[in-house]
Structures are given as structure tokens and as C-alpha cells.
Amino acid sequence: MINKNLIDLEALSVDQINKLIRKAKRIMKSPSDYRHACDGKILATLFYEPSTRTQMSFQTAMLKLGGRTIGFDNPMNSSVAKGESLKDTISIVSGYADIIAMRHPVEGTAMAASLYSEVPLINCGDGGHLHPTQTLTDIITLSCEKGRLDHLKIGVCGDLLNGRTVHSLIKTLAKYEGNSFVLISTKELSIPLYIIDILEKNGCPYEISHSLSDAIVDLDMLYMTRIQRERFKSEEDYEAQKYVFVLDREKLDKAREDMIILHPLPRVNEITVDIDDDPRALYFKQAQYGMFGRMALILLLLQDEDFVIESRDFEISPHRCSNPKCVTQSEAYLPNLSYRKLGMQMCDFCDKRID
Amino acid sequence: MINKNLIDLEALSVDQINKLIRKAKRIMKSPSDYRHACDGKILATLFYEPSTRTQMSFQTAMLKLGGRTIGFDNPMNSSVAKGESLKDTISIVSGYADIIAMRHPVEGTAMAASLYSEVPLINCGDGGHLHPTQTLTDIITLSCEKGRLDHLKIGVCGDLLNGRTVHSLIKTLAKYEGNSFVLISTKELSIPLYIIDILEKNGCPYEISHSLSDAIVDLDMLYMTRIQRERFKSEEDYEAQKYVFVLDREKLDKAREDMIILHPLPRVNEITVDIDDDPRALYFKQAQYGMFGRMALILLLLQDEDFVIESRDFEISPHRCSNPKCVTQSEAYLPNLSYRKLGMQMCDFCDKRID
Amino acid sequence: MINKNLIDLEALSVDQINKLIRKAKRIMKSPSDYRHACDGKILATLFYEPSTRTQMSFQTAMLKLGGRTIGFDNPMNSSVAKGESLKDTISIVSGYADIIAMRHPVEGTAMAASLYSEVPLINCGDGGHLHPTQTLTDIITLSCEKGRLDHLKIGVCGDLLNGRTVHSLIKTLAKYEGNSFVLISTKELSIPLYIIDILEKNGCPYEISHSLSDAIVDLDMLYMTRIQRERFKSEEDYEAQKYVFVLDREKLDKAREDMIILHPLPRVNEITVDIDDDPRALYFKQAQYGMFGRMALILLLLQDEDFVIESRDFEISPHRCSNPKCVTQSEAYLPNLSYRKLGMQMCDFCDKRID
């Protein structure tokens, strides 16, 4: 079967990402040309955990293309509460809808669902694992606002250890030429080694910084994320460092005039409200770019025969994935799909190593 | 007032059922002819208890006809939580919508609501009482897949005592010529006597079986339903019989090649997952047939002046219905509507005998 | 910035109210002329507390204009549950939608939201504070059914102390010539003095009554509201008076044949069900008028450049509003906006005095 499911942005080639961005820009330029592009088509938004912003973004995208939407936003209101399997739900919904956008608290669920869907399926977040349309949002914003995705100096700030959006953004931008990175966090929340490996393999210069104030001065883009209080080593650590990674007027004054600030949202207090009106603060505009990106994605998945997503080679592992957060734990009928990476057996659903 | 409410499938004549099936088939054949059939019309889906599948099926049906939908899926979010009566809610909603699809946990609620609705109202399930569009789904599937609704050998398996979908299906198919039935269940969960009476009155041959394995061999259609663990007489009974009524590969291998398997869904474990890909397993396709059936129903109720549903003769009983699950218990303003059947006084809402 | 937000009906001039009513009447007369008036436009209904009736009314209004809707009806399903500020939510949603309809349990929230919205915003209720489209509904009903908004004798009955819909209705009708009022309630639940002031300033005759039975005889319109049991001084008071303010057949028989009965709904038991079919009982039809009023409002806000709403002069108060129910308590970034009234400093969000 032709793969039209967007589970992981990594599955897209640079050409495909560029095509998505070009399509999004064309839609922004003359949205009325696309007002009937999806007439008669239905998007199902299956949100097994609430995410108002992402769900409204997808709904708006489909409505602006002339399509319509069905779906739910509350696991307690769904048939799941009656014990229906993911497979059965997807089998039925893919008989109603032309395309599915799905969010689920369990890792690997979107991948699992795509096995049983007759229609394209988009991962809108599967636990702490992947959220490809967030990264799509980020790079469309970058491309539109900076005019390019290469030769940029990118700062990422906050919880770099646990932030899936940061990892995905770095992996994507590392594929473009001449980008360099400044990784700004506490020591305890440093970027994982496998991301450093990717940077080195792609020949991307990077610096590690423990001070947003110092690092901000010559960035093209600053990507802010939140550090949760409980991530600090101790209460003293938190008190000592809590303002170090907060973007405020004082720090922003050190930045270049053409730097842009992005944030995956929701913001809590890591960006002070008083800089929201600064022209460099693009995190709200970013949400609008995201909507156009989702319009482009829906169009390419539904209507562009050449936009086929590469499928990973897989095999059946003799062992079940042991990650307690993996969808294979709750959906017993799933096969032990796995793939090889650096000589290791990896779970095809959650991308964790199978021992 | 002309009755355009579908509360009970029994109220339809065989001609009307056949008309519905023909309409559904025409829609399936060229759905694009119907893409604007309900332009400007609004369907309200009032789901006082969640049923994602049924609600999405109705929403999709209306959207594919060019109409739009409003409604709710959560009793706690509705005005009911503020103590509004059913009458008031329906009076208001029927001022907004052109047609209403309603589900409610209390028996007789759809019938009660139809008394106050200015627009056609469809019963999408009223407690354990009636669910006419499920049976509509079943017979459209049967008609499309077997080419006829008569001269069929029908097996029904599972909890035949409590399964409202099974009773409704048998009552409907008994009206067609030459059908015979195999009733497969434990002794404790045998079909109620009044269904046997209907079979005998209609001259339908029937067999009683306690073994799915034996009964499956010469069926045209097998209708599977779930037996809940707590329905067995004892834990030993459950352990001894739990696999007897599960459809698996081994039992299916004994069936004819042209037998079809239906299930009202959700399925729990009464059909093993490994037969889902068997061409005879039609329970997911059945959900799609259901959507087309609902499209046909909406069209006939909204646009076919000849499609009038027969109203039962009723009288006002001096006694209130005493069924604790009946809507007359909670909605005090409802009159004691009743009808006569076999010399008994029956509640017009829940169809239980009024003493 | 041009003000296109309807937060308080008081901000509209009599000319603007009359324009709204004329537009609503034109839509009622030929709704099909407006079927594509908002093609391609999106209404976001942000309901931070459930109100099925109001939300469905707005959704229906937008759908009947050819537009589409996004939104939520459950605070627990929204990003708010993740600690997102009102400002951030509105900043994002106003990037998706063309117009916003918002309900919130906290006073002043709609006003606060309008500061950050790029698109017109309609207050659908902010706690016990304001609910302008309810009053719009009331006066459209009155205008359509009585043919005028002036020279009417208006009875208002129930909890006149706490009923925001009653206060708003009186303030609006006091602007029209020749209206007189009968204020029917227990002594404890009498109308607040500031409403009496408004009546006197506008030269409107008024009477105070403690008997619905006496007061009903020569009214043009009776506006019923509910008295909650806990509002009575004591249990004896409740028992003694509970039927005094209930509209039933006996009291209605004393009223004029051309009197009309309105109610903001939901009704509990302050109007007995047996008069629902009386031609004077217009509370269900009123809901339909409300929908047409909302269609008119959406159209004027989106498409009529002359329909600009007057902004109040404001200043920044040195003190924070101390009303514990005010939005300034929970949204820390809000400025201390205030205005002067009768020499006092009033909070621009909740309209309470700032000490």
C-alpha cells in the first residue's frame, strides 16, 4: 500500500519538506484559490487527549479548504470507554472520513492506527514521542520570516533533555546547509547525546550555553521552551536559576533586531508578557503559519499522487517492546514490528530499543 | 400532525423498508448526485450519553448530503445539568434544526421527545429499548451483500435474551418470505418467548442451538453479539462455556464460503482479531453501509412527502407506567399514553405493560 | 482600533439597536437571501462553561449564514487546563477565526479577551455580569410580536435583585419613549436602587408589586424569571410565597389576550407546563428570534463598516479591582483599566467600584 501517513517528520525528504513549505506559501498568498480544494471531503479529528489548539488548527485548516470535520476531543465520550480497540475504531472511522488527524497519550499509537486506516493519517502527538506538525509549523515560520532554512544561527532554550519539539526541530534543520546551533539549558537538562551525534554527523557547528543572556546576542532565531519546576535538581537550584532561562525585556534588548522568537506553546512564564508586542515575538503568528502548514499537508496527502511517504523496512521481532509507555502494551493484537538501527532492534511504534 | 419520526423500526412497512434500502443503494452508486441534497439544512445530534460511532455516522451522513450539524455529546455539558426538561430542550432545538438525531440512556425518551419536536426526530438508542438505525444498518448490509432479504438462513449468536439488536433484526427479517433462523446461545440467555411467538406467527422455521461450531455450517449470515461475563449462571459456567460462543478461525473454517458475518459493534472478544481479514468478515464494512442507510433515512424524512410513518392508536391510561427505567418516571408532565396489545395496556413510551 | 466587540448592550445606541432589529427582521423575511452571506467565514465559540442553548444558537446562526464553526464547550478539554492565559488563547484563536463568541464564568472576561482579539468578539455571558445577546433576543421578540418597543407596560417578575437579564432589559427599554414598568418580587428580592435611578432619570413610570396575580391584569409583556429557593429569607417564607410568583393557568386567565410572556430560559417551575400551548406563551419562539438576532449581529459586526461600537473613555487606576469575581484577579497581566462614573472609579472589566 502507498504510504500517505505522516507519523514522523523524519520520514520526509528535504525535497518533500520544501514542497510542503512552497505549498503553504502559495495558500497564504491567495487563500481564496483553495476555498473549494477539499469540497465534499471529511477530516476526522480523533483526540484521545485534549489539545484545543492543535485540534482547532486542523479543523480550521480543513474548513478553509472547503472540507468538513467530524471527531471527538474527550476520551470519556468515545467508544474507547466501552473497551473498543484502536484497530476497530480506526477501521470504522476510516470508512467515514477521507483523512484522519489523531492525538493520543500513548507512544506509537499513530503508527499503530495507520496500519488499519484506509485513509491518510496524521500524527498530532503520541505521548511524549512525536508531533510532526509542530515542527512543520516551526520551519514554515522560519522560512517565511527569515526567507531561508539554511545558514542560520539557531538558539534553543529551556528543557532540552525532554523537549520533543526541540529534538525534532534540530533533526530537521540539521539537514539544511550551514546551520549552527546554540543549546541553552541547565546542565541537568542538556540535549541528549544522540542529538549531538546527529549534529556532528551533519557537520553542524554547535555551542553549549548555560546563559540565555549571553547566548542571545547573535542569533537568527531563538526557540523558547518551558522548564518545569520539578525538572530542577533541587529547590535551591530552582531558586538560583529560575530567571536565567526566562526571556524578558532586558535579555531581548541584547538580541539582534532581526532575530525572531518562536515557542511551541502553551507558554507559561518563560517569556514575559511585556515583550509580546515586540516585532520579533512571533509565537502567536507562528500558530497561523501552522494552520497554513496543515492546509498544505492535507492537500498534498489527499491530492498529490507524487507525495508518497517513504516506509521504513521492518521485520517481526521475537520480543515484545518492553517500553511501558508503548502502544504495544495496551493493544495486544499488534505485531512486534521492529527495524534495525546501528545494529540494534528498535520498536517500530515507539522507537525505543527492544531488548 | 404527519408523523416523520423514526422511533421504532416496527412502525415501517416492508414497502417503506425496501424504499429505504433502494435509496441507500442509489446513494452508494453515485454519492456525488447527493452532495447538495441537503444544502442549508441542519441536523442536531443530541447525545445524552456518548456513542461516538453512531454520532459520527449521523454527522458524516448529513455532511455528505451537503447539510451541517450542531449538537452535543456529553450530558454534563448540556442544559440538562441545569435541570431543564426534555420538553423545553426539544422545543428550543427544533427551532434551530431541520432534523434531530437523539440518543438517551432512559427508555422511551425518543418517543417522548417526538411529541414536542417540530421537526423529524430519529431514535439513536433509548436505553436498552430500541435502536432502529442499527437494524437498518444490518438489513442494508444483508441486502447489498446477499442480494436479497428473503429465503436466507440466519444465525444469531450470543446473548439472545438481552440483545435488543438481535430482537429487532429477527422481527424485521421475519416479515420477509422464506427466512429461517438458528438461535445460538446458552440456555440461560435464550431468546425471549415473545420473539418465538413472532417467528411462529410468521411461519418462520427456527432451530435452537447451544454450539456455534455446529450451527455455523450452513448459514447465509451469522450475526454475532457479545455475552457479558456477568450473564453466565456461575463462574464455572463461564469458564466452561466462554469459548463456545467465540467466533474464531477454527469455527469459521466450517462455514460456507459465501456466509457473511455481521456484528453491531463494539466488539470485545467474541470475534477473534485473526479473522478480520477474512472476506466474510463484514462488520467494518457494515458501519459504512450504516452511514449510507442514515443518508437515505435523512433524505426520506426531509424530502419525501409520501414517506409518512404510521402512528399507533393510543389512549390515556388511568395509571402511570411503573417501569423504573421509563421516561415517564423523570418527566412528570408526560401524559400516560398507552396502547392496547393482546388485551393488555402497554406504555406508549417504553412498550412495557401498564398494570 | 475600531471597536467591533459586543461586550455590553449599553454600548449600543438606540439607532444601532434599531438597526440590529431591522436586520434581524429582514433575515427572517427571506433567510435564503443570506444563505451565503458568510461563506468562507469561521466563528469560534469558546465556551469556558457549558451553555448548550446559547452555543447552539450561535452555531446555527453562523451555519445559516453559510459560515462554519470551531470551538469547545468544556473547560477541561481546553488548553486552559494546561495553564494557558486568556491572552494567549485569544491571540491564537483570533488567528484562526473571523469572529469569536465567548462565554466564561468569570466577570469581565469578555472585555479582557477583546483587548487581545484581532477579530470581533461577542460576550455570551461573563459570570453573573453581562449577557447582551439575551437582551437582544428579548427586544427582538418584543418588537416582532408587539410591533414596537415604546409605549408598553412591562411586567418583570421573579428575582429582581440578582437577575442580570432583567436589569439589562429594563436599562434597554428605558431608552424608548413611554414605557412603564411593574416590578414584581418579594421584598427581599427587590430591584436594586441603581435601576430605580435609571427609571427615574429616564422619566419612566414604575410600580412595585408583591403579587403577580394582581399585577398581571393590564400588562403588554410579562417577563418571568426564576426565584431560587435559597433566595428566600427562611423556609417559612419560601413555603408561604412559593406559588405567588409562579405563572399558572389561573393567573394567566386574568391577563389581557394580547399580553405576551417571555422567559430567558431555562425554566424550572416558575411557569407551569399547562400554559405552554397558550398563544401568549412565547418563550420557545423567543429562542428562535434570538437565533435571528445573532445572525443579524454577526452580519453587522463582520460586514457593516458603519456599525462601530462606542468605546468608553478609560484611564489606568493606581489600584487593582478588588472584586474577587473579577477577571483581573486571575489574569495578572491585565492593566488596571477603569472609568469614571458619578465621581467614582469603576473597573472597566467588571463594572464594580474600585476603592
Fold and architecture overview:
The structure is a homotrimer of 355-residue chains. Chain A is of the alpha/beta class and 355 residues long. Chain A has three domains: 9-130 and 290-303, Aspartate/ornithine carbamoyltransferase (Rossmann fold); 132-287, Aspartate/ornithine carbamoyltransferase (Rossmann fold, 3-Layer(aba) Sandwich), CATH 3.40.50; 315-347, no CATH class. Helix content of chain A is 33%, strand content 15%. Chain A has eleven helices and twelve strands. Chain A has helices at 14-29, 52-64, 86-96, 109-114, 132-146, 164-173, 193-201, 212-215, 235-241, 249-252, 283-303, and strands at 42-47, 68-72, 99-104, 121-126, 153-157, 180-184, 206-209, 221-224, 260-262, 315-316, 337-341, 344-347. Chain A has a five-stranded parallel β-sheet with strand order 7-6-5-8-9. Chain A has a four-stranded parallel β-sheet with strand order 2-1-3-4, with helices on both faces. A three-stranded antiparallel β-sheet of chain A has the order 10-11-12, with no helix packed on it. In chain A, α1 crosses α5 (132-146). The longest helix of chain A is centred in the C-terminal third of the chain and has 21 residues, at 283-303. Chains in contact: A-B, A-C, B-C. Chains A and B meet through β2 and α3 of A and α2 and α11 of B.
